[in-house]
Amino acid sequence: MSDIVIKAENLGKKYIIGHQAENGRYQALRDVLMHNAQTLWNKTKDLAKGNPLIHGDTLEEVWALKDVSFEIRRGEAVGIIGRNGAGKSTLLKILSRITDPSAGRVTIDGRVASLLEVGTGFHPELSGRENIYLNGTILGMSRKEINQKFDEIVDFAGIEKYLDTPVKRYSSGMYVRLAFAVAAHLEPEILVVDEVLAVGDAEFQKKCLGKMGDVTKEGRTVLFVSHNMVALSALCFRSINLDSGKIIYNGHVDTGVLIYMNGLSNIDNPISYKTRSATGTGEMKIINSFLLRNGKPTLSNVACGDKVDICIEFECCTEKPRFHFALDIYNSKGNRIAYCNSLYTMGVSWVQLPKIFLAKCSFPKLPFFPDEYRVDISIHCNDERADYLQGALSLKVYEGDFYGSGKIPPISGASPIMLLEHKWTIDN
Ligand SMILES: Nc1ncnc2c1ncn2[C@@H]1O[C@H](COP(=O)(O)OP(=O)(O)OP(=O)(O)O)[C@@H](O)[C@H]1O
Q1: Are 296 and 330 in contact, with CB atoms under 8 Å apart?
Q2: Nearest CA residue ID for atom 24, ligand 1
Q3: Smaller CB count within 10 Å for the chain: N or C?
Q4: Which CDD domains does the protein's record reference (predicted)?
């Protein structure tokens, strides 16, 4: 499977819930079947006694995941983002083989260690020491290999004094510390972590993030579910955003976080990036672009003086790229009014890249007069144009208080194009 370690194809997970779920909590299939057997027995009794049958107990299908497909490469740290009930835990449970998918399939190349809920993988009656060996053995490690890691695990978890105490006597904090230490140190090829960091204190959370970072540097893969966007963007390069069981975004983590924070269903753009092919050598490809107005996504509306970021997601399809970007901005009369080329701004080309990355061209105070503008994006790689997208974005610029003076320059017949930062003084 080359460097692809996880491949999910049209994954689906269906749960069946009874309509009369007690206390509003989920019912597993087993609960539903038991409940139904009971209901059937009661109904048979009613029938024997000549009582009328009461209908109304119905079963409902809930698709926790639907048509989920993605690939994850070796050494990638991927964040799974989504609101409560989006399907994140269900996805991790399938990847950790705790539950089977109802549809589709997943191919995994490597040993998975997962930390999904406090307690997963630990035997309550066994001591901390015994659980370390048990988990190591489950991960396919020899006793010698576990011995080599043992002190590091105990040290990381900070549980020396309680090593021989059954883990059922541990506080939840101790439990999580040990569980994380075991999962991260026993050299799994794929580490799956679900929100566990919420339980530890700030210092331990920092330690965990550092350790997960090390795990990816060693070429191993990390999948991380969290509602903590700061932690997610610090650790992960890519995010997969889920909403109602479906993937709504799969790309650079910064974009994924924006989509999540702004409750968007996606960052809309009329261009279908998925189906377009590169206009150039294709060594790099533009895969998405969007606008931020004062830090929030916008389709095209901005005002003079706003902080505007033009964000472009690229995919790198070559080894050792040397690259730079350029934006061309045209007004509604077709005049090319700005050319923003990173080679001139930075003085050098960029050279190092992950597979997917986000480039941002920031205008701290947009100096354009009200009009409609077209933005063309190009990327040059190893001295040749790799991709070019005409009309990637449009900017609809409205009047704004560019100078912060409370007065807005009027638009007249012969409007200027640009607003210049300048000063007026009087010498007496
Ligand atoms: N055992 C179950 N039986 C029935 N429905 C379930 C079960 N587990 C999950 N679901 C349903 O599947 C959907 C996805 O749940 P899941 O726990 O995967 O979401 P999540 O994104 O992890 O949420 P959270 O952030 O709250 O942990 C929810 O609508 C939930 O109602």
Answers
A1: no
A2: 84
A3: C
A4: ABC_KpsT_Wzt, Wzt_C-like
